[in-house]
Amino acid sequence: MKKRHTWHKVNSSPDHSRKMTAVLKEHSHCRKHPLQQCRLIKSNSERPAPKILVPTDFSLQSRKALQCASMFMRGCGASITLLHVVKPEVSVADYGYGAVLRQTVDESLIKKARIRLNNIRKDCLAVAAHSAIDIRTGVPGSEIVRAATDLKIDLIVMGCSRVAASPQAPWAGVAQSVICLAPCPVLVVPNKTNGFLRAGAQSENEENQSE
Amino acid sequence: MKIKPTNNRGGVVLELGPKEGQIPGALDEVLFSPIPVFHLKKILVPVDFSECSDKALEYALPFAKQFGAELTLLHVLQPCTPVPEMCPMPVGSLSQSKADLEALRELVGDSVTCKTLVRSGNPHAQIVGAAKELDIDLIILSTHGHTGLARAILGSTTEQVVRHASCPVLVVRRKEHEFIG
Q: What is the rounded average pLDDT of the residues B2-12?
């Protein structure tokens, strides 16, 4: 039998495909295969509701992400946590022993963010079983990952800008760093999406017209 | 629409019905419009027959079952150019890829509508192209989780797909906190 070329694959043995095919055929008669038993976790008395983290910077991309997360909330009874990260102002200071970087946080920005997050929660997440807000300061990507770890988040839903963070570091976007380091699945919603969000909006318009 | 006076002198309360448009008020009320209904009809799962892509399929199945979506398994044969003067050749056998995808589809069973697709070319370009052509609603793919130098050298198909996809992308990894049971 000819060997399958797998040099381009990473972290996979050369015969993985054939082994997997053999395993699949062996378990094809078994109804309790893990793939067939997988189901989305729904909230019930035995298991807590899944937790969704929605980082938002109050942009259009994060609006789409929140809409998507709200759909999950309806489908799975999930709880949503809105997160906003305030970047500290970095300045160079000299206290007599050399230049040091000094980070200061503008408290007014935190207050404004809290008010906006509460408004969003009141307007869009009123039907959620449980919703919360969280405001952190620091590097956005790192803080999002840290929040997901601390709050034991099950899913992160966030927007993504098509434009890279900078020409020198095209992989340095917030979404990219979260995808690399997140402890849970990440659902990235692009701004110009033709996915189920548009399909849902069209169907709702059709229902309104039929009424 | 109802107009009611408030306790404050000179103030009124405007109550809008469900069929009436919203009055532009606070910026957040304008930005965050009512939530549309969820309709997930087509899911694309790129598969490279590695352990990581098995994880993506584990997530795709319950999504497809719960929302009644059609599943499309996509495998991309990556071309290689052994000699620069030669034209690029696809790596791997097309028939073997189809056979492996068919085996996966048999495992998925009849509970979910499942299709298979094999293409050759640049993986992320083919994935994004297939998502556009088939009008995919959601892409579920896994990431190997490379960081640092490995990421710089090997690159990431997931990163390119996330950046160029025209639909939401669910990125899963092999070892993580899960929300499927």
A: 65
Nearest to B167 among A63, A119, A195 (CB): A195
Rounded-to-5 percentages of helix, strand, coil across chain A: 40, 20, 40
Best residue in A1, A7, A9 to probe B by mutation, most B CBs within 10 Å?
Answer: A9
3-class SS of residue B176: coil
pLDDT tens digits along A34-72: 444 444 444 444 556 788 999 998 888 888 888 888 877
Q: Closest chain B residue to A157 measured between Cα atoms?
A: B170
Instruction: Give the model's confidence band at B155: pLDDT under 50 very low, under 70 low, under 90 confident, else very high.
Output: low
Q: Are residues B27 and B71 in the same domain?
A: no
Determine the Cα–Cα distance for residues A151 and A186; give it in Å rounded to an integer.
15
Judged by DSSP in three states, B46 sits in: strand
Domains held by chain B: number: 2
Work out whether the CA dihedral A11, A152, A163, A138 comes out positive or negative. negative
Q: Secondary structure of chain B: what % helix, strand, coil (to 5)? A: 35, 25, 40
Return the ∠ at Cα B120 (arms to B115 and B122), rounded to 5°: 115
CATH of region A43-210: 3.40.50.620
- Angstrom distance (rounded) from CA B58 to CA A153: 19
What residue spans define the domains of chain A?
Answer: 43-210
Q: Does some domain include residue B50?
A: yes
CA distance B9 to chain A (A): 26
**Interface probe, candidates B100, B143, B169, chain A, greatest A C-beta count within 10 A:** B169
The domain of B95 spans 42-173
CATH of the domain at B80: 3.40.50.620
Query: Are the CB atoms for B37 and A203 separated by under 8 Å?
Result: yes
Chain B residues with CB under 8 Å of A50 CB are 179
Of A27, A39, A120, the CB nearest to B28: A120
Q: Does the structure's ipTM exceed the value 0.90?
A: no
- Asked whether residue B121 falls in the same domain as residue B90, the answer is yes
Model confidence at A111, in pLDDT bands (50, 70, 90)? Answer: very high
If asked whether residues B12 and B77 sit together in one domain, one would say: no
Higher pLDDT, B36 or A121: A121
Q: Which of A8-22, A29-43, B6-20 has the lowest mean pLDDT?
A: A29-43
Coil/strand/helix, residue B106: helix
